[in-house]
Structures are given as C-alpha cells and as structure tokens.
Description:
Layout: H1 3-16, E1 19-20, H2 24-40, E2 46-51, H3 53-59, H4 73-83, H5 98-110, E3 113-117, E4 125-132, E5 135-142, E6 148-153, E7 156-160, H6 189-198, H7 205-224, H8 231-239, H9 243-259, E8 266-267, H10 273-290, H11 294-313, H12 323-338, H13 343-357, H14 369-388, H15 404-418, H16 420-431
Parallel strand pairs: 2-3
Antiparallel strand pairs: 1-8, 2-4, 4-5, 5-6, 6-7
Amino acid sequence: MDRTTYDAYVAILAEELVCAMGCTEPIAVALCAARARETLGMPPERVEVAASANIIKNVKSVVVPNTGGARGIEVATAAGVVAGDATAELEVLSSVTEEQIAQMQEFLATHEVRVHPSERSWVFDIQVRVEAGGHTALCEIAGGHTSVIRLERDGEVLLERPCAEEGNTAGSADRGEKDAGADRGRLTVEQIVTFADEVDLDDVRDVLERQVECNMAIAEAGLSESWGANVGSVLLAAYGDGVANRAKAWAAAGSDARMGGCELPVVINSGSGNQGVTASVPVVVYARELGASKDELLRALVVSNLVSIHLKTGIGKLSAYCGATSAGAGAAAGITYLMGGRYSEVAHTIVNALAIDSGMVCDGAKASCAAKIASAVEAGLLGMQMQQRGEQFYGGDGIVVKGVENTIRNVGVLAARGMRETDRTIIDLMCGGAC
C-alpha cells in the first residue's frame, strides 16, 4: 500500500471514531445552541431554531441524555443553552448536573423555543439564533455534526465557512461525498483488507481500543438495565446464547440504551453512535467466542469500520436509508476477516449482505433502531454464511452488479438519489406536514 493511502486510512479512522454521548442529531442541536449562547455572551431570553427536515426527523422521538428523560428539538436546544459545554463537541451534555436539569426544565417553562424548518436545501442544517439584552447571536452547523459554518453576533460575521453540501442538494451519490479531512474517495474493499493486513497497530490502537471499551460498556448496560423496548434482552431470551444471536443481541442492546437516553459515551462511525455500535460490538462478540488475540480483533475492527465508512460515504450523513444496513455489512466483513477471509471472501460477504437488507428505511432515531440493528447484523451474518458455503448473489440480482465496488456505488445511488421521495414521505408522516 502506498504511503499516501495508508496515511489517509489512518486519518479516516481518527476522524470518524470519536466519542459521543447520546444520539448525535440532538447532540448536534445542543452543540449548536451552546455555541450560540457562548457567542452571545449571556443567557438568552429568546431562542429560535431552524433545522432541516432530516434533523427534525432524527431528533423528534429520541431521549436526549441528561435531561430527565425528555425528547425533542426544544429539549436539546434548552440543554445546550443552559448547560452545554461547547468545547466538548459531541459530549456537549456530558457534564450536566441535577441542578442544571432543573434549570433546563424551568427555561422551557418560562421561555419560548421556536422551531421551524430550515430554508436551506441541505440535508443536514441546524441554525440557532439567540437574543438577550438587545444583542443577538447565531450559530449554524451544516454538513456534519460538529461542522460550524457560521457564527454571528449583532449581525457581524465572526466565522464563515463553506458547507460540505454546497451545490449538492441531491445527495452525495451524484459526486461522491468528500468530507473535510482525509479523502474517503480512496476507500476500496481491496485496499481496506490490505491496510488491515499491513497497518502498524500502534497507529490505530488508541481509537479502536476506546471503541471496544465504550461500545461494549453501553451494550452491557443495555442488557443489565431496562432501556427502550429491550430488544437485546428479548433476543437472548427468545433465541438463546449462540454466538450469532449474541452478536445481534449485544449490538441491539447498545442501541436500546442509547435511544433510551443512557449517559454512557459511544465511539461513533459515520457520524452515528448506532452505526458505531453495529460496526464494532458483533466483531468483539465473535472475537471472544473464537479466542482471537487482541491484535487480531483490532485488525478485524479496521475492516469493519472502514467498510462501514466506505458504504456510507456514497449515501451521505442522513437519508431514508437506514445506516445500520451499512454497519451490519461492515461488521460481517470484519468477522469474515477475523475468521481468515481476505479480499474475495470479504467482498462476497458485503455484496450478499447488501442484496439482503438494502432498502430498510430510516424513520428517525428511536427505540426501534435496536431492532433494525439486529436485522442488519443478521443480514450481514447470513451473507457471511452464504459465502462460506460457496453461495452468492450475482450481477443482475436486483441492484447487485458485477464487482463489489459497483454494487456499493449502486447502493449509494439508491439511497441518496432513489430514496429522496421516500425520505420526504417518511418526514411528512412523522411530522404531519409540519417539517
């Protein structure tokens, strides 16, 4: 592998595998609110939020951590305004106290937080405007969960950057999404497997070990306590302790806890905690079952995470396509690698998984995400079992075409372009036309 590609892959993992506490869309709202308040320099008297429809969709039904079990954009905004630590980025609400929770509730009872759809055409856009003492401030986050593109105070522009979505209202499949930072366009399945074989693990050890520690901890919490619909616990009670079921159940349990407002952090993938859990927890479960060494586990996690990122790059941050599908395929790719598979086996596993589960829709963050994760992991594991037995889907089977990269490209087009109307319909159904 050439050095430029090697360095890009190391950078991609460092950029993507970061800690977040809570579902990342409400956390992004809270971060935007905290930056707006910080820019204003005083507690706001009035707050106005403009958000793209996909943000509204993903914040509507999920519990915001450290708010006393509350949900919604107004709650996330109040949490950021009252208690958010903007320097902590996706852990903006990690240091909230009981006293501050009471202050949030009082703020919501005594202040109006006005929410309306953003006029921007971008899929990912949050604008928070605050006013107090005759002064105003604005923060806008767009194109990514921590991507602040505009700060204003009293009409003076303090910061202005281009949005990653500028000029690309149709989604990333038309040109290939290029995030700030390392070039995701360098990702290919063949190079990912080569990188996993060759990487000096000291270059990626810290981010991967943190992922194992954080994501397994929240999965354990999801099984030991009652969160959401307890999908993980139901899977174990109904289908037993076999390794395939444990892989599904533990991943689902992590989502049970996250969607229920658990305050434990997770290491995300492609901007999503659920995808971070899905890409990692099943691989850890299989590694423990197989007695794999720590280094073998880390190399398998390199595969699972980079495959998940590769699949999601053509789809975009938010869409009607459930991101767990990509992460489930990534997890199965990592498990295939862990079992001795290399490029051919990994590629067939990915294509099989995508052929099975592509089309599962995203209808926002909420308790049922845990069940979708279980379904995505099941599809990935079935795809793996098929390739181990010499079975596969071929070009011409639906959206599958010859070559794993071509099939991945088709999935990106399906999700970002083909499912636009699906996305609008889902949002209308969820919001009653108010989004």
